């Protein structure tokens, strides 16, 4: 796909088949993650955890449902792959813009790569926030010291089709300063 076609075809997919994602596809998606820009090229400040263990995915899903206060929800949408992106954070909002942006770049690069491969994807921050508060679940990610799950992406095959979408140009309020 051409870049603009991929960008316009990407959408958040919230229903997945229970088939596994091929290791070739996963490697391409992880390559896209590794191609992401990261502030000051500090790649050592981000970490990815690729989870394909259905029980662990289900436990994180459950933590997300509890977080949203509705156990009927499945915030990971039964996707077969969850990739958690973790980073170190200072807890000071003004200083955490770069680590949070790094994670968003990585997550979005993976979403675009998944779209290019005809796979569904969705950025997951709600259930990631829930995960980050569950110490016993975070331990199971085997993260390096000091890293906090910050954003995630779910990926999987889907019945949904990808077509270029019409994007309203006023979707994001924009002002121009020319002089
Ligand atoms: C930072 C961020 C966090 C998001 N978190 C979630 C999430 O936790 N669950 C979810 O279903 N979608 C999540 N989304 C997807 C947005 O809801 C979605 O991008 C938005 O509604 C626009 O729809 P589109 O992605 O189909 O264009 C997130 C997106 C971003 C950029």
Automatic annotation (TrEMBL):
<feature type="domain" description="Nitroreductase">
    <location>
        <begin position="7"/>
        <end position="156"/>
    </location>
</feature>
<keyword id="KW-0288">FMN</keyword>
<dbReference type="InterPro" id="IPR029479">
    <property type="entry name" value="Nitroreductase"/>
</dbReference>
<keyword id="KW-0285">Flavoprotein</keyword>
<keyword id="KW-0560">Oxidoreductase</keyword>
<dbReference type="InterPro" id="IPR000415">
    <property type="entry name" value="Nitroreductase-like"/>
</dbReference>
<comment type="similarity">
    <text>Belongs to the nitroreductase family.</text>
</comment>
<dbReference type="Pfam" id="PF00881">
    <property type="entry name" value="Nitroreductase"/>
</dbReference>
<protein>
    <submittedName>
        <fullName>Nitroreductase family protein</fullName>
    </submittedName>
</protein>
């Amino acid at each position: 796909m051409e870049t603009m076609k991929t960008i316009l075809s990407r959408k958040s997919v919230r229903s997945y088949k229970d088939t596994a994602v091929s290791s070739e596809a996963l490697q391409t998606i992880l390559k896209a993650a590794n191609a992401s820009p990261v502030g000051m090229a500090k790649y050592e400040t981000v970490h990815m955890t690729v989870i394909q263990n259905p029980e662990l995915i289900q436990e994180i899903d459950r933590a997300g449902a509890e977080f949203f206060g509705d156990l009927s929800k499945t915030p990971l949408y039964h996707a077969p792959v969850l990739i958690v992106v973790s980073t170190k954070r200072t807890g000071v909002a003004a200083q955490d813009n770069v680590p949070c942006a790094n994670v968003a770049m990585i997550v979005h690069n993976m979403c675009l790569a998944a779209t290019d491969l005809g796979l569904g994807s969705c950025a997951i921050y709600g259930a990631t926030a829930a995960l980050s508060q569950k110490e016993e679940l975070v331990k199971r990610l085997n993260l390096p010291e000091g890293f906090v799950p910050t954003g995630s992406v779910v990926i999987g095959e889907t019945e949904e089709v990808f077509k270029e979408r019409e994007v309203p140009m006023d979707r994001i309020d924009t002002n121009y300063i020319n002089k």
